């Protein structure tokens, strides 16, 4: 079975984007070069990228407008918009849970849930993830797009790894069975 891995960065106060949807704050504390080693190690373990329209649009218009950064990985963009598929990118209006259930049993590497918050919260609350990898960026935004929905049920987790570099704390959790 292929693992479903949520891998995302958030501010210390739990936001994945600032109030204007920006992510220019995704850097360390300035004490050195931000190491991408943990991301590159993770990236080698996946062959599928899952994201929503807003995350896709931000990547294409702000973060990497010249070139799709996940070349060679099959990317699925969940959207209600009618878009034409591109090389390595398929636009889908299917149920994300059904799609992940199907892909999880197919041969391949891990499935990366790249964002955004809506997709991530659907998967968290449905229990449809194997690992949750959060990079906590040393900044307090005060407002913005929160990673987690408020007022939902508890989601028990087990910390399996933690690391810190340049002020960025990496936390990797697995689902824990509820008692």
Commentary on this structure:
Residues 4-162 form the Bacterial bifunctional deaminase-reductase C-terminal domain. Pfam families: RibD_C. This is Dihydrofolate reductase family protein. The strands form two sheets. An eight-stranded mixed beta sheet has the order 5-4-3-6-1-7-10-9. A two-stranded antiparallel ribbon has the order 2-8. The protein is of the alpha/beta class and 179 residues long. The protein is globular, with a radius of gyration of 16 Å. The chain has two domains: 34-109, Dihydrofolate Reductase, subunit A (3-Layer(aba) Sandwich), CATH 3.40.430; 118-179, Dihydrofolate Reductase, subunit A (3-Layer(aba) Sandwich), CATH 3.40.430.10. Helices cover 21% and strands 33% of the residues. The model has no long low-confidence stretch (mean pLDDT 93). It has helices spanning 37-43, 53-63, 96-104, 117-126, and strands spanning 4-11, 15-17, 46-52, 74-78, 89-92, 110-115, 131-137, 145-146, 157-165, 168-175. The protein is built from four helices and ten strands, in the order ββαβαββαβαββββ. Strand 3 (46-52), helix 2 and strand 4 form a beta-alpha-beta unit.
**CATH topology assignment of the largest domain:** Dihydrofolate Reductase, subunit A
Global outline: globular
Q: Uncertain spans, ≥5 residues at pLDDT below 50?
A: none
Q: Main β-sheet: number of strands, strand sense, barrel status?
A: 8 strands, mixed
Overall mean pLDDT stands at: 93
Task: Give the neighbour order of strands across the main sheet.
Answer: 5-4-3-6-1-7-10-9
- Separation of the first and last Cα atoms: 25 Å
CATH superfamily of the largest domain, please?
Dihydrofolate Reductase, subunit A
Total number of domains: 2
CATH-derived architecture of the largest domain: 3-Layer(aba) Sandwich
Q: Give the strand content.
A: 25-35%
Q: What top-tier CATH class of the largest domain fits best?
A: Alpha Beta
Order of helices and strands: EEHEHEEHEHEEEE
Question: Helix count, per DSSP?
Answer: 4
């Amino acid at each position: 079975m292929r693992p479903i891995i949520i891998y995302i960065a958030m501010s210390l106060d739990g936001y994945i984007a600032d109030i204007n949807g920006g992510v220019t704050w995704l850097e360390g504390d300035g004490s050195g070069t931000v190491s991408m080693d943990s991301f590159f190690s993770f990236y080698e373990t996946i062959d599928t990228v899952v994201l929503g329209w807003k995350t896709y649009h931000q990547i294409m218009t702000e973060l990497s407008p010249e070139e799709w950064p996940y070349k060679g990985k099959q990317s699925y963009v969940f959207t209600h918009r009618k878009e034409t598929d591109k090389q390595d990118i398929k636009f889908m209006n299917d149920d994300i849970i059904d799609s992940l259930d199907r892909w999880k049993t197919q041969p391949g590497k891990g499935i990366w849930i790249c964002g955004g918050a809506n997709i991530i919260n659907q998967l968290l609350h449905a229990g449809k993830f194997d690992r949750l990898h959060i990079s906590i960026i040393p900044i307090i935004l005060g407002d913005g797009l929160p990673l987690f929905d408020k007022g939902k049920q508890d989601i028990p987790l087990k910390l399996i790894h933690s690391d810190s570099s340049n002020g960025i704390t990496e936390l990797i959790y697995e689902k824990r069975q509820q008692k």
